[in-house]
Design a protein that fits this description.
Elements: E1 4-13, E2 23-31, E3 34-41, H1 46-65, H2 70-80, E4 93-100, E5 104-110, E6 116-119, E7 122-124, E8 129-133, E9 136-144, E10 150-154, H3 173-184, H4 190-204, E11 213-222, E12 225-230, H5 239-248, E13 252-256, H6 258-268, E14 272-274, E15 287-289, E16 294-296, H7 299-313, H8 319-323, H9 328-339, E17 342-347, H10 362-365, H11 367-380, E18 384-389
Parallel strand pairs: 12-13, 12-17, 13-16, 17-18
Antiparallel strand pairs: 1-11, 2-3, 3-4, 4-5, 5-9, 6-7, 6-10, 8-9, 10-11, 14-15
Helix pairs in contact: 1-2, 7-9, 7-11
Length: 390
């Protein structure tokens, strides 16, 4: 066993005029080290395509996660989904990436644009074995995973971008591979890579997509622990135990809250140097404490991080708000969303009288809600979360 893990991100845009996307991505974790990712592209667009792709991805991911062979999965799809009365075709196309024990990547492809693999900064021409299942041509590849491998799966909305406009014959797969190769070199997360690819397709469509367009990116990386201290303990006598546990953990250390940082400074025997510079008006300044990677204000900063986390899981439109700025919320977001894979929360239950103002919204009153909400978002990003209360 190794300490590799998968960072997975995807984004879709709908065919112009359609409320539902005809593409669907489904991710099923068999266990901590094995994952099945399915990108399905339903026939046509709109409601029918959405139903076809959702059923296809759900059936395949569930069956494969249960250990059933691909032949059985495909034959089940053929037997389950209805046949289109016009085209006489039964189901959607699909791409499967099956990560096994964080060591082996199995790629199975049917009629979607072939997965692009970037390995060692170069576009990797990987071997494919052709199979015939139920009269359908399926390509299968089995590879040993390497650190920093990037797998880019997409629906045919990506190579169709710009068709008859900026490109006579669409955006060729080779051109997409070159475009993504340059972005991968920038060290972006899987979510941001998929967002940038789909946004570029949207631009090539003139922001009027002629097809549902989806990109799913899988980035192989090493596990990176991160530790967050948020709030003083309810019992003052627990402060030293809380601090010793927090600082004994490997990985970077983030402290949120004025009182909490004062307790940490006393424990470390180091002074806090507060910044008087507001990087932005809606987030309090950060501070510096030797032995700690980041010190920020508590509730207001954490509230902003949650706002960014929810957006990151959705359309990712605030990416530029937090990816380049130096305020506390942006710095925490970069550490949690982009660097961390395993996050330990150390949460104090002490009540801050300043948060009991009835004029403040309820999420300012209850600090626990903030931690639960952020933990939930981070789990959806594929992070391992552990929360300890004091």
């Amino acid at each position: 066993m190794n300490d590799l893990c998968a960072d997975i991100g995807y984004k879709s845009i709908n065919h112009i005029g359609e409320e539902l996307c005809g593409d669907h991505v489904d991710i099923v974790e068999e266990n901590d080290d094995s994952t099945v990712i399915v990108l399905a592209d339903g026939l046509g667009s709109g409601v029918k395509a959405s139903i076809l792709s959702t059923l296809t991805s759900k059936i395949i991911s569930t069956m494969m996660a249960a250990g059933l062979p691909i032949e059985e999965c495909v034959s089940t799809i053929a037997a389950t989904l209805p046949v289109c009365s016009v085209r006489g075709v039964a189901y959607s196309t699909f791409t499967i990436i099956h990560l096994q024990n964080n060591e082996i990547a199995e790629i199975i492809q049917y009629d979607n644009p072939h997965v692009i693999i970037i390995r060692g900064g170069e576009v990797y021409d990987y071997p494919k074995t052709e199979m015939n299942i139920g009269g359908k041509k399926i390509y299968k590849t089995t590879l040993k995973m390497c650190e920093d491998d990037v797998f880019i799966a997409m629906s045919d909305g990506c190579p169709h971008a710009g068709l008859g406009g900026l490109y006579n014959f669409g955006w060729k797969r080779e051109e997409i591979a070159s475009y993504m190769q340059a972005l991968v070199a920038g060290g972006y997360t899987a979510k941001n890579l998929s967002t940038m690819l789909v946004d570029e397709c949207d631009r090539l469509y003139g922001h009027k997509p002629g097809d549902d367009t989806t990109s799913c990116v899988v980035k192989i990386r090493r596990r990176e622990p991160m530790n967050i201290l948020f709030g003083p303990p309810s019992n003052r006598d627990d402060a030293n135990r809380m601090m010793s546990l927090f600082f004994s953990k490997e990985g970077k250390h983030i402290i949120c809250g004025g009182t909490t940082s004062s307790i940490a400074a006393k424990y470390l025997g180091k002074p806090i140097r507060a910044s008087l510079t507001f990087e932005r008006s809606d987030v309090p300044p950060i501070a510096e404490l030797e032995g700690v990677d980041l010190v920020t204000e508590g509730v207001i900063t954490m509230n902003k991080v949650i706002q960014y986390a929810k957006d990151y899981l959705g359309d990712n439109v605030y990416f530029e708000h937090w990816n380049f700025k130096r305020d506390g919320a942006s710095l925490i977001s970069r550490l949690l969303f982009e660097e961390a894979t395993d996050i330990n929360f150390y949460v104090g239950r002490a009540v801050n009288p300043a948060h009991q103002n009835p004029d403040l919204p309820i999420n300012f009153n209850i600090k626990m809600n903030l931690v639960e909400e952020l933990s939930s978002c981070l789990r959806k990003m594929g992070k391992r979360i552990k929360v300890s209360y004091f």
